Amino acid sequence: NGGNKVDKIDRFSINNIRKEYLNFFKSKGHLTEQSFSLIPKNDKSLLLIGAGMAPLKKYFTGAEIPPAKRMATCQKCVRTGDVENVGLTARHLTFFEMLGNFSFGDYFKNEAIVWAWELLTDVLKIDKDRLWVTVYLEDDEAENIWHTKVGIPMEKIVRLGKDDNFWELEVGPSGPCSEIYFDRGADKGCGKEGCTVGCDCDRFIEVWNLVFTQFDRQEDMTYLPLKSKNIDTGMGLERLACVMQGVDNIFEVDTIRSVLNHVCDISGTKYGSDYKKDVSIRVITDHCRSASMMVS
Ligand code: GLY
């Protein structure tokens, strides 16, 4: 039904979801802040900000006192590591906005997990049956919270190793994590036997990463324990919008689609008629967004 689709896109527009997220965490006692610049300050380990936690490292390590023990932001991010996937998958962008809630020695796993579920299912009304979660291989505590407090059946909690469920940058705050995936349906997947959470295809799409920040990774790759246990979460706003708007591809999300339409207008091309051209249109759309944000 075309009418319903338009209502859905309106209610779940990028701008509305951003507002709902920040308001939700404000109601849970968080200080909400504007995005920091894409250019890191006093951090020689990063060229660009690629995660919501990056401008807040100093608060996680205890080098500076945060303005509040609970904060939430929507941070502009650029991840050049994903550049080869852009245009080919339904979910990768180089520039994206990351929704994040942070605890500096305040709440930990329990609240982070329960609130993430409350926001997705009660506030944003995502169908519970489409959600799966992962936990770090050894993290019995997170698995127990997901199962006993939230009520996720054990068969929908997947344990993964360090490659998937341990979050870190080159240096700085890091720790085991738990991710929330949305199942977009078999028709969006690779169809291979054994395709499940963790598969590289576009069926199970990771929307939210909850990091239980406990370590400070050093340049020599050793991990020192942090003074306090913290929470760092990251959810891609455009990916969440893709799921909520029920569109096939992240490039069809409201604000990104406007850029894509403009790319088609000025190049005299039509989107959706030729696979190779579509890839190019998506790449140009992505790079226009990133370049504009980096220049600004
Ligand atoms: N810092 C959490 C994430 O970027 O996924």
Q: Structural class of the secondary structure composition?
A: alpha+beta
The helix-strand sequence is HHEHEEHEHEHEEEEHHH
What profile does the largest beta sheet have? Answer: 9 strands, mixed
State the separation between the terminal residues, measured CA to CA: 39 Å
User: Which ranges are low-confidence, i.e. pLDDT below 50, for 5 or more consecutive residues?
Assistant: none
The amount of helix comes to: 25-40%
- Please, what is the average pLDDT? 94
Fraction of residues in β-strands: 25-35%
Number of helices: 9
Indicate the overall shape: globular
Write up this protein.
The chain has 296 residues and is of the alpha+beta class. The protein has nine helices and nine strands. It is 35% helix and 25% strand. α8 packs across α9. The mean pLDDT is 94. The structure holds glycine.
List the SSEs and their pairings.
Blueprint: H1 2-11, H2 14-27, E1 31-33, H3 57-61, E2 70-78, E3 95-104, H4 109-123, E4 131-136, H5 140-150, E5 157-160, H6 162-165, E6 166-167, E7 172-183, E8 204-217, E9 223-236, H7 237-245, H8 254-267, H9 275-295
Parallel strand pairs: 1-2, 4-5
Antiparallel strand pairs: 2-3, 3-9, 4-7, 6-7, 7-8, 8-9
Bound molecules: glycine.
